[in-house]
């Protein structure tokens, strides 16, 4: 068992995410010892609720506010697991972290396991990989003498999982005050004979102003007695001490300089005394044979600390700050010039656009775009291809971002968004086809035809219907939304449900083309050969059991995704299981996350240009509230609705119907239920097939492979605008 010890103080806004991240892990042999350190907010009430619902949660309340060190001490005394993991109440675990830790502990028999982390923004929405030495450079199992680089790993409790017997042997005691994590870290590293690392993000470390060591005050002087504990505990009888002492000393001086170098941590009256103590500690613990002094500016700082030269230290800081300000000023000057140049360019392009609007509309030009110029995709791509066949006299031109131009198929003419060619095409095109709205400045010319193809059957509320759900609104300018929708001549819908929803969401004057979705023609007409080719292109064989996992984007909750462990899921699929993970297109510019452990069986296909090809390749779809379920249903294959946060999503974002009551297949409310369904091979039973049949009858009846043809004939050919071939 792994015991999580969680000190809790003024973290009511973050505590639920912390606890959920532990309790929702697929590895369930855990306990949570939450220590309410007399938190004045609602943290205690939150803890009581969790303890009432889950027997794995126990709550201890301190007699008075004592700080995180004594709180951890109380939690440790109550913990019963073989391993202990200290986690702060405002941080949270990555999915699959506990199982990965348990596997690593079993494989290495480590006494201390150092795990990877990422630094999270205060709102938890974005993060970067935590700094420090790369864990992948460590030996599989080592003592500190074998890999002393571990000294420079961030000295915090939450990135270490510790065998309880080691803690008992050390008889370590956390003390009150700040920087109590320093002696804890180095006591463990110096005592452990078996240390290992796990090179994956396991903990998200929230950076926030309310953290104790991020605030100003005399508490920062606690760094000195805590580093003194490290050096006073060194055992000179051990042969490795002579080698490790200089490296620990260098780390100590580095730490002092980092704290002193941050004026937000120390009021001006405290700074001279702090520096004096830095110098005293330097000489008190300077190794007899010296230590490896860093080079460059860092080495200069070390020498200033050694000489007690606070004035020079300050002068150096002021000089460096001045240099940085000059550089920033220079960059700001360059940025200001660039900004001015951009404004002039924008004015010039706006003028150019106005001039182009005076020229005649080109009766043979159609301009296409998809997903805010992300590339060649979706319904516009299907309409474009059919128009080339049925209306060859019409010249089709695509608008794409500059960074996506290379993704276009060969032979597809394009203009780059924001270029003169872009404005010329927008001004003169007879037809403008998009699956989202064109930008506000685009003018609807007399005689021009705007076709909104949309990009999904609506489950979540859209347009004016969002007014009933203010918490989920991202664009509150509904007048602007309606002005954009007012440019539509045609609105393409996939089914009667979509037609009805758009009437209330976008009550503008346009003609509805209830044709089915052109992009689904590919799915409706697919042959066994098409499926085989799609799988082969992804390196999949006919024997593979392929699942496509495609969660939706929660724009009202940045950074939130359904709890999902790819490694655990693919293990549940069995030896032939393969998992394709498709992120939402909103994340196409995000840095890729670290690959899962089962790299040969789990693939991130977020950048794949065609979701239709992914659907063809997959035997099963797992999704939450993504509109891909309506498209995948055309294939009449198993669909799993994974809806762990359905009540919150429904209440906050707003939906048009209860998809859990009228699902496209089986429903799983938790990740554990999802795994049970997979292991029991219960994804396509009689109940699932019945639900899917009803879903298909409601949403897929028009998907016969001719939707694009119906759109092209109505938009391009009905009024003689272009003639069919022959």
Automatic annotation (TrEMBL):
Family in the record: Belongs to the CDP-glycerol glycerophosphotransferase family.
Query: Where is it localised?
Result: Cell membrane
Membrane topology per the record?
A: Peripheral membrane protein
Keywords from UniProt, A to Z, are: Cell membrane, Membrane, Teichoic acid biosynthesis, Transferase
Instruction: Name all Glycosyltransferase 2-like domain ranges.
Output: 3-167
Organism's domain of life? Bacteria
Q: Does the keyword Heme apply?
A: no
* A Pfam family of this chain: Glycos_transf_2
Q: Which InterPro entries match?
A: Glycerophosphate_synth, Glyco_trans_2-like, Nucleotide-diphossugar_trans, TagF_C, TagF_N, Teichoic_Acid_Biosynth
Protein name, as recorded: Bifunctional glycosyltransferase family 2 protein/CDP-glycerol:glycerophosphate glycerophosphotransferase
């Amino acid at each position: 068992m792994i015991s999580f010890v969680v000190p809790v103080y003024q973290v009511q806004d973050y505590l639920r995410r912390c606890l959920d991240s532990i309790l929702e892990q697929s590895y369930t042999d855990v306990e949570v010892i939450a220590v309410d350190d007399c938190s004045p907010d609602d943290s205690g009430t939150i803890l009581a609720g969790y303890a009432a619902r889950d027997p794995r949660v126990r709550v201890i309340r301190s007699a008075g506010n004592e700080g995180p060190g004594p709180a951890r001490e109380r939690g440790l005394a109550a913990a019963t697991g073989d391993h202990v993991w200290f986690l702060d109440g405002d941080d949270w675990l990555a999915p699959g972290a506990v199982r990965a830790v348990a596997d690593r502990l079993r494989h290495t028999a480590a006494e201390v396991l150092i795990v990877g982390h990422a630094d999270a923004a205060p709102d938890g929405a974005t993060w970067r990989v935590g700094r420090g030495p790369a864990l992948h450079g460590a030996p599989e199992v080592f003592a500190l003498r074998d890999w002393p680089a571990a000294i420079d790993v961030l000295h915090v409790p939450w990135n270490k999982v510790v065998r309880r017997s080691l803690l008992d042997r050390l008889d370590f005691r956390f003390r009150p005050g700040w920087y109590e994590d320093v002696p804890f870290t180095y006591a463990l590293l110096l005592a452990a004979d078996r240390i290992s690392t796990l090179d994956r993000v396991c903990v998200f470390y929230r950076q926030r102003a309310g953290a104790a060591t991020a605030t100003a005050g005399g508490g920062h002087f606690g760094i000195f007695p805590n580093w003194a504990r490290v050096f006073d505990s060194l055992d000179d009888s051990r042969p490795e001490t002579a080698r490790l002492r200089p490296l620990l000393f260098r780390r100590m001086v580095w730490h002092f300089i980092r704290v002193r170098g941050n004026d937000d941590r120390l009021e001006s009256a405290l700074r001279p005394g702090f520096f004096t103590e830095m110098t005293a500690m330097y000489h008190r613990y300077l190794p007899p044979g010296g230590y490896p002094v860093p080079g460059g500016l860092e080495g200069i700082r070390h020498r200033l600390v050694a000489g007690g030269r606070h004035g020079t230290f300050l002068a150096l800081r002021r000089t460096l700050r001045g240099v940085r300000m000059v550089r920033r000023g220079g960059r700001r000057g360059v940025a200001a010039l660039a900004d001015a140049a951009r404004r002039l360019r924008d004015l010039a392009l706006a003028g150019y656009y106005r001039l182009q609007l005076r020229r005649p509309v080109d009766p043979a030009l159609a301009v296409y775009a998809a997903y805010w110029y992300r590339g060649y995709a979706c319904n516009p791509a299907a309409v474009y291809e059919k128009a080339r066949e049925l209306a060859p006299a019409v010249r089709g031109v695509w608008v794409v971002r500059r960074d996506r131009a290379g993704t276009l198929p060969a032979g597809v003419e394009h203009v780059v968004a924001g270029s003169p060619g872009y404005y010329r095409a927008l001004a003169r095109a007879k037809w403008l086809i998009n699956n989202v709205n064109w930008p506000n400045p685009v003018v609807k010319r007399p005689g021009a035809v705007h076709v909104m193809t949309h990009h999904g059957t609506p489950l979540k509320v859209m347009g004016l219907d969002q007014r009933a759900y203010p918490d989920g609104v991202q664009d509150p300018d509904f007048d602007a939304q309606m002005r954009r929708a007012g440019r539509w001549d045609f609105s393409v819908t996939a089914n009667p449900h979509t037609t009805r929803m758009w009437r209330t969401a976008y009550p503008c004057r346009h003609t509805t083309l209830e044709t089915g979705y052109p992009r689904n023609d590919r799915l409706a007409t697919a042959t066994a050969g098409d499926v085989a080719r799609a799988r082969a292109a992804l390196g999949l064989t006919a024997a593979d059991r392929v699942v496509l996992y495609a969660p939706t984007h929660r724009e009202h909750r940045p950074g939130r995704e359904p709890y999902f462990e790819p490694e655990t899921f693919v293990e549940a699929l069995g030896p032939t299981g393969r998992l394709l993970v498709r992120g939402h297109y909103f994340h196409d510019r995000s840095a890729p996350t670290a690959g899962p452990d089962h790299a040969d069986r789990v693939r991130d296909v977020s950048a794949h240009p065609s979701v239709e090809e992914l659907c063809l390749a997959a035997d099963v779809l797992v999704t939450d509230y993504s509109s891909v379920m309506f498209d995948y249903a055309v294939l009449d294959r198993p669909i799993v609705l994974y809806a762990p946060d359905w009540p919150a999503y429904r209440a906050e974002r707003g939906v048009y119907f209860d998809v859990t009551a009228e699902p496209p297949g089986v429903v799983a409310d938790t990740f554990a239920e999802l795994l049970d369904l997979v292991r029991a091979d219960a994804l396509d039973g009689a109940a699932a097939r019945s639900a899917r049949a009803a879903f298909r009858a409601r949403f897929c009846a028009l998907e016969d492979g001719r939707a694009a043809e119906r759109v092209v004939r109505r938009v391009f050919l009905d009024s003689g605008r272009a003639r069919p071939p022959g």
